[in-house]
Structure formats: C-alpha cells, structure tokens
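worker-03 picked up job from queue 'complexes'. Input manifest follows; two sequence lines, order preserved.
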Amino acid sequence: MIQPKYRRSFGDLSERALAFWLLLPAALLLGSVALYPVVRLFYTSLFQRRLTDETGSNPVFIGFANFAQALSDERFWTALWNTLLIVLVTVPGALVVGLLLALLANLPFRVRWPVRLGLLLPWALPLVFAGLIFRWFFDSQYGVVNDVIVRLGGERLLWVTTPDLLFWAICFSIIWKSSSFVALILLAGLQVIPKELYESAAVDGANRWQSFWRITLPLLTPAILVAAIFRTITAFQTFDIPFAMQNGGSSFETLAMYVRTMSIENLNFGYGSALAVLMFLISLAVTLVYLRYVRGADD
Amino acid sequence: MKKLFWLLVAVLVMSTALAQQTRLRVFVGGQQRPDVMRKILDIYQQRNPGVRVDIEVGGATSDQQQQYLTTVLASRDPSIDIILIDVIRPAQYLASRWADTLDKYLPAASRQNLLRQYLPAYSQANVINGQLVALPAFADAMFLYYRADLLEKYNFKPPTTWDEVIQQAQTILQRENNPNLNGIGYIGAPVEGTVCTFLLPIWAAGGDVTNAEGQFSLTVEQAQRSLQFWVSLMDRRVSPPNMAEKPQDTIRQEMQAGRWIFGTLFAYAWNRFQNDADSQVKGKIGVVPLPAFPGGRQASCLGGWQWAVSDFSRNKAQAYRLVRFLSSPEVSKILAIDASNLPTFPSLYRDADILRVNPWFGQALPVVQAARARPQHPRYAEISEAIRVNTNQVLARQKTPEQGARDIVNRLQAIYSGR
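worker-03 finished. Artifact:
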C-alpha cells in the first residue's frame, strides 16, 4: 500500500518561499505607496524643476545645489527653529497634561465612559478643525479667550497677529489636541500596574505622593517613552494647526508649511523636494531613536 | 426567449449610443454658484445631444481651488477638460503648459473680432505673449459697500473720497456708540485679497508694479505710502486694531451681521447681503465705486474668472466649443441674473432684465472698465505671497511700513530679475 503523500496546498514550497509569496502583496503595496514616493522625492530634489518655466517639463540636473541653497536660506532656518520650538514646548506639555488626564481617567469612578469619551474626542477631531476652532477662540474681537480676559479686567490681546502670543496660542492648541493621544497610551500603561503593589505600599505606610513617585512613575516609564517618541515624530511634522490658525498665512511657519508653500503654491518642485528630503531625514533620525528603544525593550 | 433577445438588442443599441456621446468635465469653485453653472450646462446638453457635461465642484477660495488643481494638472490627469480660473492665473497656466492655447481654433481675424466684444481688461488678461490662454466667464471688481440706513440717519451722502469715508465713519461710530459696530473694513489677513488692498493706493497715485514695457517699476516710497495709509485707518480708530486678522469673507459675514459701516469687497457680497436668509442688512446696503485716495484718483482691483481648456483633456476640440458657449453673451446674462456676476460684455450693463435684479450694475460699468489688473507673471504666486505676507505683518505691527515696503520691493525685484 502506498502512503498518500502529504501535499501542501501551495505546491512544494519551502517555508521560506511560502513566507516570501505571502509577504509579497504587502511589500508591493508598501513599496508603491511609501518607498516609491520617497525615492522619487530624493530624485526630484537633485533637479532644478519649476512648473512656472521650461524646467517644468525638462528638469535640469543640478546635483546637491538645492540642498546648498537650503542651508543658506534664512527662511529654512527660521522654519526649522520654529519647528524645534514647537517640539520643545508641546512634547513635554502634552506629556504632563496627558499624564494628568490618564491619572484622572484611571480613578475608580463608578461611571467611566464620560471620562473616557472626553479623552477620545480631541484625539478623534481632525487637526485642521482643531486649528479652526482655536482660531475662533483666540479671535481678538469675538473670541472666548479675550472675553474672559476683558471680564477679568484685562486688555484685549491680538492673539493671532502678535508673533509671541500666536506661538503660545498654537502651542496651547497643539497640547490640547495631542495630550489625549498621550493619555490613551499612558492609561494603558497605568492599567497593567498590579494593584497589589499599591496595597503593600499602603501597608508599609507610604502616602499617595510616595507611591506615585516610587511605583507609578517608574513602572510607567516605558509607556511615557513610547508616547514621547510618537509625539516628537508628529511634532516635527506640525502643519495643520498653525496653518489653519493663521488663515494659511506664514507669520509663524513650520518646516512642513514651508515645504507646502514652496511646492504646491510656488510650484518650485525641485527646491520644495529638497526641503522635504531634509524634513524626512530629521523624522528618520527620530524614528531610528525610537526603533533602537523598541529593540532595547525586546532584549 | 424572444423577450430576452430584444432586451439584449436594446442594451446594445443604448450602449453604442452612450459610447458615441462625448463626456466633458468642468471644474468650478464652490463659491461660483455650481447650481447656476449646472443650469447653464443643461442648456448646452439640450442643444448638443451628443455631449454630456459633468461638473466638479472645488474649494471655496481661489487658493484652495488652485491647490487641488495643481495636484491634478502637475500629474497630467486628463479627467478635467475645462477649468474656471482666476484672472491672476493665465500667465502661470501658459508657462506651466496646463492650458491648451485657443489660437489654433480661431483664425487671427475672428480672434480679434471676438476679443473686441469683451471688456478690454479681460481680453488683455487672457492674452499672454500673444497667445490666447482662456476666455472670460464673468467680471469682478472691488467696490465700497456702505450702510445706507446709517448714512441716511446722519445725513451723509455716499462718499467719493477716503477723507469723506473716514469723517463719516468717525461721526457714526461716535454717535452710535455701539461696541459691536466697526468703521471701515478692508482685507488685511495674509490672503490674496490683501494684494488688492496693497495695490489700490499705488494705482490711485499713478504707480504700478510694472511699467508699460512690463519692467519692474515699484518704488519703496510708493509701497510705503500705501501701507502707511491702511495703518493710519487703525491709528485714527476708524478701523479696529485687528485688521490683520480679516480675510474678505469674514468682513462680508460681519457686515451681513450689521457690524461694519463700510467694507471694501468684491461684487459677490451684494447678492449675499440682499438674499441670504441670515442677512441682518437686507435693503440697508448701498454700493458705490471705491473712493478716491488723498491726492490721487479712484482705483479698483480687477477680479473675474476665465474658462481654460486643460492641455491634458482628451476632447480639446469639443471642450473648446463648450468654452465658446460658456463665454457667450447669453451665458453672461444668465450669470448676471441668477448669480449677480458682473457681465464681461459692456452692452449687458444696460440690459433691462439684468438691471431689474441688480440695479447697481448701472454704475458698475465705469468701475470695471477702470479697474486695474494685478501683475501678470508666471511666478505670480510668489509675488502675491511677498505682498500679502508683508502687508499683513505691517498691519499686525510686526514691521514698520518702511520696513514692509522695503521687503516687498526687494523680493519683487528678485522675482522680476529671475532669481
């Protein structure tokens, strides 16, 4: 009697070959929507290409001249500096506010869903809507912020058109918008901290403050790091909120806003691509730090 | 079985009929009354059974529409055949080769005959380097809107000079003593309309960005005087201190809510004041040509929209035929009656049907005829940005008028010399 031969449904494929074929569709998809545009961006950044003259249809290869131009472009450095300021203020800001929100949501309320819903709503709101809402809040004549200031006996402030005030108004809006995302990650982190630790700390006579510093914060550090890295990457790409709050103007311009103006408005695709490549490299650097951290955690 | 056979035959016949039909796609902005445009396209479809025209509606402002169109056209997408473009764009569309030039369909003589019928400003705006880039859809210009009821209450006549506007605003603001009432509204946010704000006093004083030969000719002094004028309205408290926050449609909405005595706005505002359900100022608004500037003449800023055929269209000849219809006196009249769009044909400003709906069109013709065009340049977007951002910063008191003027002139000089 001949034993029926065991047949794999995918023919005689080895484990490796099967893995290859199964991963191929995803790899093709990612390649076409993520890898190809990035490669194309690098390629375009090496050309002089303005859609407003003949280089639009016949780009001229100029090597790294666009990058040299960027490094001596005052507007690029201002935009980079503005972006860094946003990162430096809104990342710690969102972490602190997000932590407070997470602690609040983790309290043993009888009805939890209103707090959780309140946490989710800012996160679910599209960025540009948040920008428009806060633009209205900070309107000098009809905004609620100035209304409160006037009721408290203060002077009306021109939030949107005074550079320093605009910066803080933008940071405030970004922190409001992004701290709920931070809070969601931290809340997940809080919920895996074993209750027994707090109970035994209480038995040992620790007060709430001590158990927060000695138990909660150390055990939450991995979650805080993840949140911080995610927030930093998105903060480097800040665009929607400052754009919407300034009516599309560029008194306060981030790197992403400069890239958009240069390519989509001024139609200078070569130089705009070079700026985008620089922005990509910065994001990549931050992401590598993140990957290194994730690897470290796995080991 | 027999039934099925005939059904199949019917389906076949219908599908070949459909296949023979030309489909055209027209792009218009959300603010340009797509409902009225649809009505006009329906008329064309009725007369041309072989053509089906779809309409694609874009964003509300010229900038928003162009952002989308840039993506479509830079990727050579053939899906749009005809585009309604702002008067500031033909030069860029030609330079980018996004528009199919229309000369090939029109012998030189008939081109001249055709263009002669339009307001001269529009035949000029659409001919770039001797090539016909687009044909006019409707005209537009800036006007001074005023609260007729308030002026009447204090026995004022509609103003003809800015000094009168300032004086009337001062008196009315003082006597009304209403904290929600503002004086003179002008566009000051970093948006396209602010380019007009900046250029108006310069035109009135006889200056311009370029001279007759198209060379850059704006001086720091001219620019500074213009910026100084708009800042002085805030200094004299006839305009609120937050003019740098105001795009055109915000002033329109606020005026509609009864919060402005004067507003410098394009023609579209009239229809909204008179017909919008939420308008608090129905029948209380008057409109006159923009006043004369101190020591200068009257000037207005030319707006208006043009029909261009996309160079990536697969039905250019059919698209051209439709553009000829869309830029005809017949359509101009429908747009004037149904959408209060100013006609591009001078003769229509005396048309009784149009005047019945828009009585003020009678006075509008000299304004549109005298209105000045913003610079025509392939890199207009950069010119516009330099002007509107700097003007905005001066109004926000981040820069002095002198500094703002110097920055504008330096940047424009660089663009005009190809840097």
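worker-03 released lock.
Chain B touches chain A through 30 residues (CB under 8 Å).
The first helix of chain B runs from residue 2 to 20.
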